[in-house]
């Protein structure tokens, strides 16, 4: 009986070790304890007071088609070990280390309005309060073919604490250091998009809105059509005036 008990205990121990080695299914694993809100706040205050080095992850190269919306992604991460492709969840991502961050980080995509249309042109705020990585994404629609450049701008949100009152206020954003990272975009132009691309190039050439070029083009076509119609009418009248009258006898 004792031997059986020992074998049963050994079997239980073996099963436990086997499960630990192989891993439990996600549904059976105990959830890790949640951090207290105060822990997150202390982490955020530490980032604001000391500024920590982070990596900026982005795409240095991209390919797009004129007229087709595409997603541009970027991230700021405190994680120094994970490969950039896994951080950004995109192949070909690259990382630039040494960027100083606070608890909140802002980013924006700076593009030429003649070359791209972007869904969000202002600064977008992200927080590192509860996670090590902040992510951004923009929807970009190319207007002109060729190799274009877009610039990712990133800056920390610096906060200042008043020692007398204990109040925390945001520093002037103009004083924050802005880091810039360029992405080269190769834009292909399908033949169906060539007329519109020509209008975009004219708008860039004359530094006007594309709608103004479309309106001006329509006006030129309309005026040309009107002049052509008047010319045809005048030629007809001249031919009619040059014909002999039917009331006079022919020689």
Structure notes:
- By secondary structure, this protein is α+β, with helices and mostly antiparallel strands.
- The chain has 2 domains: 37-189, Immunoglobulin-like (Sandwich), CATH 2.60.40; 195-236.
- 34% of the residues lie in helices and 32% in strands.
- A 5-stranded antiparallel β-sheet has the order 4-1-3-8-6. It has a 5-stranded mixed β-sheet with strand order 2-12-9-5-7, with no helix packed on it. It has a two-stranded antiparallel sheet with strand order 10-11.
- A hairpin with a 6-residue loop joins strand 10 and strand 11.
- Helix 4 crosses helix 5 (210-242).
- It is elongated.
- The model is unreliable at 2-11, 13-21 and 212-224 (pLDDT under 50).
Characteristics:
251 residues; alpha+beta; Immunoglobulin-like; 2 domains; five-stranded antiparallel sheet; five-stranded mixed sheet; disordered N terminus; signal; transmembrane helix; membrane
Q: Can you describe this structure in just a few lines?
A:
With 251 residues, this protein is of the alpha+beta class. Helix content is 34%, strand content 32%. The chain has helices at 2-22, 37-50, 84-88, 194-206, 210-242, and strands spanning 52-59, 61-65, 70-77, 93-101, 104-110, 116-118, 124-127, 133-142, 146-156, 159-161, 168-170, 179-188.
Tell me how many strands there are: 12
Sheet with the most strands: spatial strand order: 4-1-3-8-6
Mean pLDDT level: 76
CATH topology of the largest domain: Immunoglobulin-like
- SSE series: HHEEEHEEEEEEEEEHH
Low-confidence stretches: 2-11, 13-21, 212-224
Major beta sheet, specifics? 5 strands, antiparallel
CA-based gyration radius = 34 Å
Structural class: alpha+beta
Distance between the termini: 146 Å
What's the CATH C level of the largest domain? Answer: Mainly Beta
- Number of helical elements: 5
What would the principal axes of the Cα set say about the shape?
A: elongated
Total domain modules: 2
CATH architecture of the largest domain, by name, is Sandwich
Percent range for helical residues?
Answer: 25-40%
Strand content: 25-35%
| CATH homologous superfamily classification of the largest domain | Immunoglobulins
């Amino acid at each position: 009986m004792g031997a059986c008990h020992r074998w049963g205990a050994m079997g239980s121990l073996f099963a436990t070790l086997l499960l630990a080695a192989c891993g439990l299914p996600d549904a059976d694993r105990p959830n890790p304890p949640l951090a207290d809100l105060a822990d997150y706040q202390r982490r955020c205050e530490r980032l604001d007071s000391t500024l920590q080095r982070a990596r900026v992850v982005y795409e240095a190269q991209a390919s797009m088609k004129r007229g087709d919306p595409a997603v541009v992604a970027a991230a700021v991460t405190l994680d120094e070990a994970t490969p950039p492709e896994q951080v950004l969840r995109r192949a070909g991502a690259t990382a630039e280390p040494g960027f100083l961050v606070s608890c909140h980080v802002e980013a924006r995509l700076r593009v030429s309005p003649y070359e791209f249309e972007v869904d969000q042109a202002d600064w977008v705020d992200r927080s590192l309060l509860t996670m090590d990585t902040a992510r951004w994404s923009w929807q970009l629609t190319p207007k002109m073919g060729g190799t274009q450049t877009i610039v990712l701008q990133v800056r920390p949100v610096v906060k200042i604490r008043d020692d007398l009152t204990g109040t925390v206020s945001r520093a002037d954003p103009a004083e924050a250091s802005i880091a810039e990272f360029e992405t080269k975009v190769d834009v292909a132009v399908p033949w169906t998009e060539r007329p519109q691309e020509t209008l975009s190039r004219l708008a860039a050439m004359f530094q006007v809105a594309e709608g103004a070029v479309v309106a001006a083009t329509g006006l030129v076509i309309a005026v040309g059509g009107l002049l052509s119609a008047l010319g045809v009418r005048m030629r007809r009248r001249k031919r009619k005036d040059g014909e002999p009258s039917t009331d006079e006898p022919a020689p």
